[in-house]
UniProtKB/TrEMBL annotation:
Residues 92-161 form the HMA domain. Signal peptide: none annotated. It comes from Eleusine coracana subsp. coracana. PROSITE patterns: HMA_2 (PS50846). Pfam families: DYW_deaminase (PF14432). InterPro entries: DYW_dom, HIPP47/16, HMA_dom. The lineage of its organism: Eukaryota, Viridiplantae, Streptophyta, Embryophyta, Tracheophyta. Gene3D superfamilies: 3.30.70.100. This is HMA domain-containing protein. One of its GO terms (molecular function) is zinc ion binding.
Length: 209
């Protein structure tokens, strides 16, 4: 694979990322033995063409391996995602595992096994038949977890692995200014009534004259 990268991709090992007090051949040999390279090689030979490869590493990926991964992705036409210690600390994953849990005892045992896994922050039993485990965590080794469940509980399959995105708080829209109409006050002007009174000296129609 490395020879193909050299011929078709112009790949040259960058030995600045390994020990300096050894020979150049030993430096190149050290680069070739980096764990992410071995994982990529294993993924290429054990999966079908076009299958995406996702690799998690508990250490930081060196610059040479970063360039190596990009060339492999381009030449072999594969989507390759490598997450190292820096990215794993920021990654929250939701994992859904289908597992045979016919009774409450088996569910409790499965939950106890998942709780002991590194990186698990929450978990629960879901599904209509209560045959699914939903696990949320940071840097959880999904493959190792499923192997453990198969060994201790029974048949288990990975149904879903996805990143948990943080919900952004909803931005409150500023309230539109309300126009308040003020009615002019109503003034009740008083008035005086003047009555004419009949006197014996005036006729009754005098007041309407």
């Amino acid at each position: 694979m490395t020879e193909k990268l050299r011929k078709e991709g112009g790949y040259v090992e960058d030995t600045r990322f390994v020990l300096h007090d050894v020979s150049e051949e030993e430096k190149i040999d050290m680069l070739h033995k980096h764990s992410e390279r071995l994982a990529i090689a294993f993924g290429l030979i054990s999966t079908r063409p076009g299958t995406p490869l996702r690799i998690a590493k508990n250490l930081t990926v060196c610059g040479d391996c970063h360039e190596f991964t990009k060339l492999v992705s381009k030449l072999f036409k594969r989507e390759i995602v490598v997450r190292d210690a820096n990215s794993l600390s920021l990654l929250q994953q939701k994992i859904v595992i289908q597992i045979s849990m016919p009774c409450e005892k088996s569910r409790s045992k499965a939950m106890a096994l998942v709780a002991r896994a590194d990186g698990v922050s929450s978990m629960g039993v879901t599904g209509d038949g209560k045959n699914k485990l939903e696990v949320v965590g940071d840097g959880v080794d999904t493959v190792c977890l499923v192997k453990c469940l198969r060994k201790k509980i029974g048949h288990a399959n990975i149904l879903l692995v996805e990143e948990v995105k943080e919900k952004k708080p909803e931005e409150k829209k500023p309230e539109e200014p309300k126009i308040i109409e003020y009615q002019p006050p109503y003034w009740n002007h008083g008035y005086y009534q003047y009555h004419y009174h009949n006197t014996p000296q005036q006729p009754w129609w005098w007041q309407w004259r």
